[in-house]
Amino acid sequence: MTGHPAPGDGPGGPAAPPPVWREAPDGGRTVPRRCAHLDAPAGPGPVPGAVCAACAARHRTWRRLRWCATCGYVGCCDSSPGAHAHAHHLATGHPVAVSLAPDEDWAWCFADELFLVPVTTPRDASP
Q1: 107 with 96: CB under 8 angstroms?
Q2: What stretch of H or E contains 68?
Q3: Percent of the chain with pLDDT over 90
């Protein structure tokens, strides 16, 4: 170790990675809410063949799957009979679940009760 900061390190240590998520607009709230988990992983995207193991073990069906951004657990959504993604949050405290549905591009923060949408980087505006 040389004692010299690595490129991108600031005076307080390594530069923090940019957030992956931002809070989704919520027109139903009079006071904006903030999420402390905007650095949660983006998730694997749709996973062909993914199942809710808890439902499958009981020979039940589910509607949509959610991926735990903390540990990778896959559970069914709140509108499924088992609501196993929410049960996983209650049992573990893991805050963010990312939708695995191919037509959904969001996450839900159980801890802060907010939808999260991906941060998009502006396209290169150069000619």
Answers
A1: yes
A2: strand 65-68
A3: 64
Question: Looking at the DSSP assignment, which residues form a beta bridge with residue 80?
Answer: none
State the Cα–Cα distance between residues 125 and 63, nearest whole angstrom: 40
Give the pLDDT confidence of 20-64 residue by residue, as tens digits.
Answer: 899 998 777 777 789 999 999 998 987 889 999 999 999 999 999
DSSP, collapsed to helix, strand or coil, labels residue 105 as coil
Which pLDDT value is given to residue 14? 64
Give the C-alpha separation, 46 to 114, whole Å.
21
Strand (E) or helix (H) holding 21:
strand 21-23
What is the pTM assigned to this prediction?
A: 0.78
Query: What gap in Å lies between CA 81 and CA 64, rounded to an integer?
Result: 11
Chain-wide mean pLDDT for the chain? 84
Which of 46-62 are b and which e, b meaning 16 or more Cβ less than 10 Å from the residue's Cβ?
eeeeeebebbeeeeeeb
Torsion-angle region of residue 8: left (phi > 0), alpha (psi -120 to 50) or beta?
Answer: left
How far, in Å, CA of 52 to CA of 65, rounded? 7
Rounded to whole angstroms, the Cα distance separating 85 from 96 reads 10
